[in-house]
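Why run this: before we spend reagent on co-expression, it is cheaper to look at a predicted model of the complex and decide which construct boundaries make sense. The entries below are exactly what would go into the expression plan.
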Amino acid sequence: MLIRRVIPCLDCRDGRVVKGVKFAELREVGSPVECAGTYEAQGADEIVLLDVSATPQGREHHLETVRDVRDVLSIPLTVGGGVRSVENARVLLEAGADKVAVNTAAVDDPSLIDELAGRFGCQCTVLAVDAARNHDRDWCVVVQSGRKRTGLDAVAWCREGVQRGAGEILLTSWDRDGTRSGYDLQLLAAVSRAVTVPLIASGGASCPEHLLEALQAGADAVLAASIFHEAEYTVADVKNCLARSGIEVRR
Amino acid sequence: MAAKTIAVLRTGVANLASVLAGLRRAGADARVMDDVRAVEETDRLVLPGVGSFEAAMTQLRSRGLVEPLAQRIRAGRPTLAICLGMQLLGSGSEESPNVAGLNVFRERATRFDPCVRVPQLGWNLIATDSTSRFIRPGCAYFANSYRFTGAPVGWQPAWSDHGGRFVAALERGCVLACQFHPELSGAWGVALLRRWLVASEAEVVGC
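The model came back. Tokens follow.
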């Protein structure tokens, strides 16, 4: 049986890890290499590295960051942020990413998912989806770091992404991200039912119980940033909480 | 070539950076090679693999590597096959029904049962018995949609389970084939790579 994963997320800008609320108000946390090494030692099952730089110089930094993190990390590394083409993905994979996440560019041109899966395999292709609630009924996809609402239904978009070859969904609740109020469990349950590939929950965690709830709602893995960056909880603390509730974890 | 050097065969699309970093952490001087000399002359070879069965076999065939690789593995020369690299050793795969594998053994890779998440992306438990030379019980990281459900005769298997039992690894002498990614399997994976490196180096020196 597959073991549920706990995944610290490093949002990086200009080679530094940052943390913000609702994709804005960024503030520095530390060096990506140090953070990644610390989290692996604490028992992280995987690291996600997202580039939130807004400039070409920032993108160059990011490639160096991927190389440096790869050298210290002996667990999987997923990289995303600003991936717009097969060529972007190839460069990241060569630098040391094991999986590449696409978001806005896939919404603009869904065939990018087919191309990535065709070239690198579905196990390398992660579809990152940022979803925002519509009047408590359903969820729409938001892009450009949350600045733009699309007309796409988030659940239908996840389903389409999988049909096109995405091997994993990284699902962030835009309403919950940075709010510390827990994951959007209804969103997770809806997408978990709709897709056949692994689902990573993201956005809103502030305590180990939130990660537990997300797994119980149907997520295969849980991603969190600030609870680890603020050193409120270690990855081991989270895994202890999950294990006490009968969820098998890797230790 | 010095016994400490490891050749990592370029199979088109593969997470070479991760494989190289993993081997370095385990103490090896690993280099990427892509020609028939690497397969025939290198004492220790790593056959990584990510992507589709057909793309990988097409790459190997276009560079004349199919027979040299099969011969090398049949002869028991130290070789580490990873993920798709292990599936290539069989006769074929449901992923690319009309494409032949290296045919080192007759097993054929099939897709996971649709009742579980596919691809299998994540950590799974490894079961083995005390006669395994390299594999120990533990947790390994997998990223695959296809797998062998039976082990070939003459190979020591390790097992895992994802909607049913499947082959996690095969060992015969200093040939080690892993369905999981040892280079991404944390300290457990580094220790496994180190065991293979030490044993295969002893074998090479002993020759």
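Residues 186-206 of chain B form the longest helix (21 residues). The helical segments of chain B are 16-25, 36-41, 53-62, 66-74, 84-87, 186-206. Bring this page to Monday's planning discussion.
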